[in-house]
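Our platform keeps sequence and structure together, in a single record for each protein. Because each token names a local backbone shape, the row as a whole describes the fold. One such record is reproduced below, unchanged from the form in which we store it:
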Amino acid sequence: MNIGALSLQDINVAGKLRLRPASKSPLRRELVQLTLPILVETLLVMTLGAVDTFMLSRHSDISVASVGLANQVLTFCFLVFEVINLGTSVLCSQYLGARLRERMETVVGVSLVVNLVFGLAISLGLLLFSRPVLQWMGLDGAALAEGSGYMRIVGAGAFVQALAMTLSAALRSNNRAVYPMLVILVVNVLNIAGNYAFIFGELGAPKLGVNGAAISTVVSRSIAMAVLFVIVFRTTVSRFPTHIFRRFPVQEFRNLMKIGLPSAGEAMSYSCSQLVIAYFITSLGMEALAARTYCVNIIMYGYLFCISISHAGAISIGHLVGAEKWHGAYVLGRFLLRVAVSITLGFSLLLALGGTWIMTTLTSNPEIIALGTAILWIDVVLEVGRPTNILFVNTLQSAGDVNYPFYVGLIFMWSIAVVGAYLCGITAGYGILGMWWMFTLDENVRGIVFMRRWRSKRWMHKGFTMTAA
């Protein structure tokens, strides 16, 4: 494995990345080996979440709206695990670049123990408080019953998701992204089959509707966790580092928290702002909430490649930072930006062009179709800023500049996206379309700020490998 290998021939005299054929360029080979399986894995993970929505659309629009809101809350809760997972990814990448394998194995062990504790606590909380949380979010009647039942069942398996996410992060950081991809492929097949059986009462199974979708999701994730455990301890970590129980590695835990708290804080700020916005949208009626749920699940396929190449690029940049190849990391970041924005824009335009057809395949409600189609066109403008944000949040965190993305997100998400959405959508009466224009403004303003940060090079020399010496 050629960790962090960046030949001077990969960079021309103008400081731009010059991609030679993969067989001659260690950097390109690493990017391809990481991006392709992460792309497929991300597609499958998105599909795993979207399958419940799309299959429930055959059940009722109310089911789609209630499950969409429940998943918004679940996503926010699961971000607690990212405190550790983001730290795991950054530290493993940098330690491998610095050839500190024993430190990397210790980080994996600490991460699994801590996330298991977090996961059990979240599971208990979701079991006990699903219904009051969704009531506070504005659901009532049949929608509340369906949403709380779904959230309670999926929430009970939160600890399973916590461990699976940690194991996947460890594998990707070790350039073994193909394994999580294959596991998620199997899980998707199982989840689709389980949904078909338990939502609609096919294959001899009881007809459980929304609860059936939840059961299928939890069972599929449990299988994924078990398989990932076997893979990690056969390919990446020789054995579980039990020495962490005799003398807990405080320095590694501090580094995990130093990276993870602000890194996950940025994601939590975004998810929390989306919860507040979802509350605003709920007040506009079930049609607006259903349109948002459909569009969120459609739009994410437009920035799928951006997520994949950003994660892959962050791992490569982490390797380069660990090897103290700072200029190589800078040039790679600029190259990734051009690729991410151009491809994301292209996909979002295709989704907008096919918007009416896509929406009519999901629902027959004309109001939802009209809102969804308009949102897909507004989103084309939004997708200039989103890939910039996704990329630079990942790369800045991977380089060790973990606080800056958190502060930028905290300021602009809440001042523009949340406050702007309320003023434009509720106060001014422009509804969900007015809100989406505020989301667009937020993403593009943050994109400009992050791009300036990367070009300033102030993120350099913030790595963590020196603390491991």
Summary: The chain is about 80% helix and 0% strand. Residues 1-17, 19-23 have pLDDT under 50 and may be disordered. The longest helix spans residues 61-97.
